[in-house]
């Protein structure tokens, strides 16, 4: 009985420590898609273009928006859902597009309330994550740098 309790505690500690290490920035559900993009418009990354989208790489998703930012050589996509289960389901369908864990440059992390994937797809670095009712995708060569910027901006709101 004691060994089982220790094993459960260790599994929980490892799972929760991973959530602290792997950031999944998100917004409260009251924010709109437009505000999710507009919040990132700054001197460092001025918003050049934004538009509506409902699919990505041939995968039909919920209503979303894309943003093109100066000083970032890629695209940022954000999708908002009414239900967390739908968010997770669409995220799982989307990440199947990017290949499998057998790829050399592939890192996936998934828990009950969030998921994160970092990989290379069609010569682009891709970072995608979901948390709550939000699904986010960054594609581009300096996607990690832009991810850290998003984490900083969205982190100020939480």
How many angstroms does the end-to-end distance come to?
A: 40 Å
Give the overall form: globular
Order of helices and strands: HHEEEHEEEEH
Largest sheet: 7 strands, antiparallel
Helix content: 25-40%
Rg, please?
16 Å
Structural class of the helix and strand makeup? alpha+beta
Our count of helices gives 4
The main sheet orders its strands as 1-2-3-7-6-5-4
Protein name: DUF3242 domain-containing protein
InterPro entries: DUF3242, TM1622-like_sf
Describe this structure in words.
- This is DUF3242 domain-containing protein.
- It comes from Thermosipho japonicus.
- The protein is α+β, with helices and mostly antiparallel strands and 158 residues long.
- It has one domain: Protein Transport Mog1p, Chain A (3-Layer(aba) Sandwich), CATH 3.40.1000.
- The protein is built from 4 helices and 7 strands, in the order H-H-E-E-E-H-E-E-E-E-H.
- It has a 7-stranded antiparallel sheet with strand order 1-2-3-7-6-5-4, sandwiched between helices.
- It is globular and about 55 Å long.
- Mean pLDDT is 83; it is low at 9-20.
In brief, what are we looking at here?
This protein has helices at residues 2-21, 33-38, 84-97, 143-157; strands at residues 47-56, 59-69, 74-80, 106-110, 114-121, 124-131, 134-140. It is of the alpha+beta class and 158 residues long. It has a single domain, classed as TM1622-like (Protein Transport Mog1p, Chain A).
Q: What's the SSE blueprint?
A:
Elements: H1 2-21, H2 33-38, E1 47-56, E2 59-69, E3 74-80, H3 84-97, E4 106-110, E5 114-121, E6 124-131, E7 134-140, H4 143-157
Antiparallel strand pairs: 1-2, 2-3, 3-7, 4-5, 5-6, 6-7
Protein name: DUF3242 domain-containing protein
